[in-house]
Amino acid sequence: MKVFLYFVILSLVFGIAEAQTIKVAGSNFVGSALQLHSRGDQNIGDYKIHYQMSGSLLGRIKLKEGLVDLAFVLQRPDEPQSLEGLHTIPLGFWGIYFAVQNDNPMTEVKETDISEVMRKTKDGLKSEWGSLLSNAPKWTNRVIFVSFDILEPDPSFPILVNQFFDNEIPENFNSMGERIEDPYLASSGNLLIMSKLPDSTRGLRSLSWIKTGESVGYPPSPESLFYGDYPLRLPLYLVVADKADPKVKAYLRDFFNSDQLEILKNSGFVPVPENLQKQALLEFDLEI
User: Fold this and answer.
1) Between 274-281 and 246-256, two packed helices, what is the crossing angle to 10 degrees?
2) What is the tens place of the pLDDT at every residue in 242-263?
3) What backbone torsions phi and psi does residue 84 show, to the nearest 5 degrees?
4) First-to-last CA distance in the chain?
5) Where would you tag: which of 21, 146, 182, 234 has the fewest CB atoms within 10 A of its CB?
6) Which residues contact 110 (CB under 8 A, 6 or more apart)?
7) Are 186 and 180 in contact (CB under 8 A)?
8) d(C-alpha 14, C-alpha 139), whole Å
């Protein structure tokens, strides 16, 4: 009991000493993409910002326990989805995408088909385009070279692992398929698995994703990610517990007036429409 009281007293003293500090936690990837770790403590008006990027799940727990003021929460498929009791501002999505060169006739891919290709790739086997392009005879015996432009630190990596590898990272992932440094240099025989929307100006075409049991798919785009039509995505939220806290309002005002969303876009992030963010900020009596 004495130890507990001592801890409580220290916590109160520390809380008073840090009353002017905005504590921010959450996704380690967001921290890396925005270089929050290397910035050190910064100032916003009368407040000092302290970042403790400790992962989305832990950031959410800290927020609910009152240990931080804001958290960047990346909703991974293998984490609880509930943000009940918290106030959320949707920021956007990361996803995984499938693409081919323009001279490849493929336009869409079925979940069942690509799952089989991925299973064979995991086992060190080769698939042939004939299984995906049944009406293109000259592709019947051509081998599918799977090229991964996605790394374990990518926030979209959990989608790949959860969707195709039973939530276990394959031991030989770095050597799976025909990995190349620049996926844009792939030949027409390559199936590209990417962590960014493919650039059509580089001769690539993204493939529509058709879920099992459905006949129509949607190509990846900011709109299809936003509405959930393209399902291979992870949403990112900026989450707070107390929307009336002046520290929270100060941070939100600074964040949305800065270039940080543009920085995230360079990492493959797809932001939600600006009007949606503005609508969410009205809950905080903020107009950006």
Assistant:
1) 160
2) 999 999 999 999 999 888 888 8
3) -60, 135
4) 48
5) 182
6) 210, 212, 217
7) yes
8) 67
Q: Which of 99, 127, 133 is nearest to 115 (CA)?
A: 127
Residue 85 amino acid letter = G
Q: Whole-angstrom Cα distance, residue 89 to residue 222?
A: 17
**Residue that is written with structure tokens 């840090």 in the block:** 18
Q: What would the pLDDT profile of 163-209 be if each residue is shown by its tens digit?
A: 999 888 888 888 888 888 888 888 889 999 999 888 877 889 999 99
- Beta-carbon contacts of residue 20 (< 8 Å; ≥ 6 apart): 46, 47, 48
